[in-house]
Amino acid sequence: MKLGAGKKYKAVAAKVDVFTKYPLAEAIALAKEVSYAKFGGTLEVHVVTNANPKYNDQMLRGTVVLPHGTGKKVKVAAFVSDDQIDEAKKSGADIAGNTELMQAIENGQINFDVLITTTEMMRDLAKAAKVLGPKGLMPSPKTGTVTQNLATTIDEIKKGRVEFKLDKTGNIHVGVGKLNFANEQLADNVTTLLKAVVEHRPTGVKGKLIKKVVLAPTMGPGVTLEWQE
Fold first, then answer.
1. How far, in Å, CA of 38 to CA of 172, rounded?
2. What is the pLDDT of residues 158-208, one digit of tens each?
3. CA distance 22 to 121
4. Hey, how many other C-beta atoms are within 10 angstroms of the C-beta on 146?
5. Pair 208, 215: CB distance under 8 Å
6. In this structure, what DSSP letter does residue 113 have?
7. Which residues, other chains included, contact 61 with Cβ-Cβ below 8 Å and sequence gap of 6+?
8. Is the confidence at residue 209, as pLDDT, over 50?
9. Which residue, of 1, 95, 132, 139, has the greatest Cβ tally within 10 A?
10. Around Cβ 215, how many Cβ atoms within 10 Å?
11. What is the pLDDT of residues 16-75, one digit of tens each?
12. Distance between terminal CA atoms of the chain?
């Protein structure tokens, strides 16, 4: 139990057996039950891995399209050449452009959640790296945000494509849908994410990649998942 946990947290935490690994359906139902947020929270997946991000051959990063999305509306900006602006907008980009978009970024006017670009435009966008990088918004081929297929990329992001990557301690944290999703929808999203993580196994990791998986609501205790690679 968390140190300094409040009464609400303690009350719901008592419902979770910290020594039990729960089957997926039961884990999701329990994670919903122990949420004490007054707002519509998210189901978060926390993956503890055997990967050590200090070594290049153990880095893990990728993207996956969740079958039922995340329940979050994502605002997409496309930094593209003049002749691709209309294409990007027709494909669903909320913002599309180059010079004006660059000026807005440099002025700190970042009103988008994801920024995509093309290989040809990366050089022009590079000067904004100091602004975008710290915010995790700099496009990268590794995250699929540098693309030659604007329509597909924008469509996937809008439908619920999420990025997963190791943090400094070798863990992964991803929101996989709103708690008001049907349990079956959340189960599909969790399974899809975990399979994608395993498929991106780093070559330097020996033995099992995943040590532990915990499902947790935005506000509430975690529930350890019974999971086999």
1. 26
2. 999 999 999 999 999 999 999 999 999 999 999 999 999 999 999 999 999
3. 47
4. 19
5. no
6. S
7. 142, 143, 163, 164, 165, 166, 200
8. yes
9. 139
10. 22
11. 999 999 999 999 999 999 998 888 899 999 999 999 999 999 999 999 999 999 998 999
12. 28
What predicted TM-score, i.e. pTM, was given to this entire model? 0.85
pLDDT at 4: 41
Burial 51-68 (b: 16+ CB within 10 A, else e): bebeeeebbbeebbebeb
All domains of the chain, ordered by start, with CATH?
A: 19-70+161-224 (3.30.190.20), 76-158 (3.40.50.790)
Residue 36 phi, psi (nearest 5): -120, 20
What does the block give as tokens for 123?
Answer: 């050089």
Q: Which two tokens stand for residue 80?
A: 């593209």
The half-sphere exposure of 69 on its side-chain side, counting CA atoms within 13 A, is: 11
Give the range among 3-12, 14-23, 46-55, 114-123 with minimum mean pLDDT.
Answer: 3-12
**Distance (Å) of CA 174 to CA 128, 160, 177, 178:** 26, 12, 9, 12
Contact predicate 181/70, CB 8 Å: no
